[in-house]
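tool_log.txt
---
The assistant was asked to compare two proteins side by side. It first ran the structure predictor on the initial sequence, then on the second. Raw inputs and outputs are pasted verbatim so the downstream comparison step can read them without reformatting.
(1)
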Amino acid sequence: MEASNEANISPLNRSWDSMLILDACRYDYFERIHGEYLRGNLEKHISPATCTPDYLNKVFTDVYDDIVYVSANPFVTNRLVSRVHFDASQHFHRVVEVWRDGWDENLGTVPPKAVNEAAIEVAKKFPDKRLIVHYQQPHYPYVCLGNSIIRKKISHRLTWFIRLRIVSLFGWKIGNQIAARIAPNDEEFVARKVGIDGLRNAYEQNVRLVLDYAAKLVGELGGNIIITSDHGELLGEEGLCGHPCGLRYSKLVEVPWFEVSGPKKNLGAFPSKIEEIRDGALSKEEEQLIQKRLSVLGY
């Protein structure tokens, strides 16, 4: 189903102390599950983007010196990432790179526990700043599957080159359906191994995992907190899986906007383990690390 033309409401036009971003979280899954973990007010919002790089560039267009961004996503870093053309350090007071130090090699992602630990540190170190906390879940990889599904990948550059060539010939919808059979992305590969129902169940388990930790963080931080997402996810709808940039279907752009309010907690202060900001351009090794981790995440 094509996405509606409902106007997007920028998250920066609302009042909040902390905003938790659940990467690739669909509205319908959140609506069905969240009540088991949280109490608050839920609205359906329309994201301006269907992938993280577009979301970053469309939403964060100004300088927000009152915000510290805690990120499990390697697209959000202290320097310019070439594939995104977005330098988070130029937009926020501080960027804390959980994707760098909280990465779990066995899972191939950043577990939400590491994100919570970093967010609490940041809240103590910067008590007068607002927080954006960007979890990597429910985005692929699916933690419940562990290493039970191991993909021998051709390079992501080659995969996406093939997909783009096919799309250019046949158009977005038909092209992506053909590409899913010839050069499947990670979500499509999982669907081949466990079926669409298995894919959807693995996605739901990721939603539950991140909601469990988001609820814990809400309880620890207090204050006015928003839980939302950068974009949604296709799980077999229209014969597609994943979240291709620019392909606007309802399941890709309908995201939760969940508000919960309470007294803001005084977390006190303590010697911070947060590293100092890295200055200058990314080194070759740092760029390679980012690209490696983005590749593992399916980018």
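(2)
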Amino acid sequence: MNPGLETCYVHANRVAVAKCVICGRLVCASCRRIVGNRNYCQTCANAILYAQPNETGYQEHKPPIGKTSRSENSFPEAKWGVGEALIIFGIALLVVTALGAISTVLLSAVGATSASSNPEAFVILTFITSAIFYALLYFGVSYSVGSRHGGSLGNIGLGNGCNFLESLKGLALGVPLFFVAILVEKIWQFIIGPTKDDMLTKSLQGGVGPFYIFILFVTIVVLAPLFEEIFFRGYLFPAMGNQLGVRNAMIMNGIVFAALHTEGSILWVIGFIPRFLIGLCACYLYAKNRSISAPVALHATYNGLVFLSSIIFHI
């Protein structure tokens, strides 16, 4: 926690993102309730929603059994929609795809070896396109949350501090998910036989030198977990939760996350199950803490183990 920052009256380790307009309490992103575009704490929001006297002038009224207030089940801090998130992702993907096509044409024009057959060129192109893609995602999310909807980084799980114990849970979940991925791959290979390695696998298994291995490490274990969790869990998941409910949103987010990590047809099938589970577990961790620290730890652990196993054991 940075000194000087005001904190939530419920969660002392989280940065406050708003003040209740009735009682004046400071609230973090998970405690903030928005009614009529005004900020409230949970108690005052319930009072406004059910409009009966209590200690602050209203009496809290509980919903009937089997029904729950929308503000308790969704993400009131997320004022953006799923469509807005998909537009941001689509624009970033379109730009990077165009840049990749242009680079391929330019390499062919000057007679250079294409990235598809040159491991070093592949690594550099992967790093550049990934960095551009993640930058576009982040700027798109920042513009949406801050400029369009008047929110803050806390609304996407970035301003709530780093919960060390929850991050350890993310790390612990990443390990069994890695072994699930290995098991799925071995079962698939037993059924259809060995699969052909892609360029990334060949690069990690001795195709490039230490400098290029380091570039791949930064791309796969640092950039990908951080920026993908900001988008998929901090930004897209809350928007889904507001439309589908938290449980359905967790499942749908996992499906979308796995489906968008496409490779070759066979490799995509092998990777779908563990990536779906990564998305599902990361959503659970985010919904529990409204912070991306644990999802990032989960994602980075899984990617790091895959990275190391490819180099050391050629798995």
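---
observation on (2): The CA atoms of residues 202 and 264 lie 14 Å apart. Residues 82-312 form one domain.
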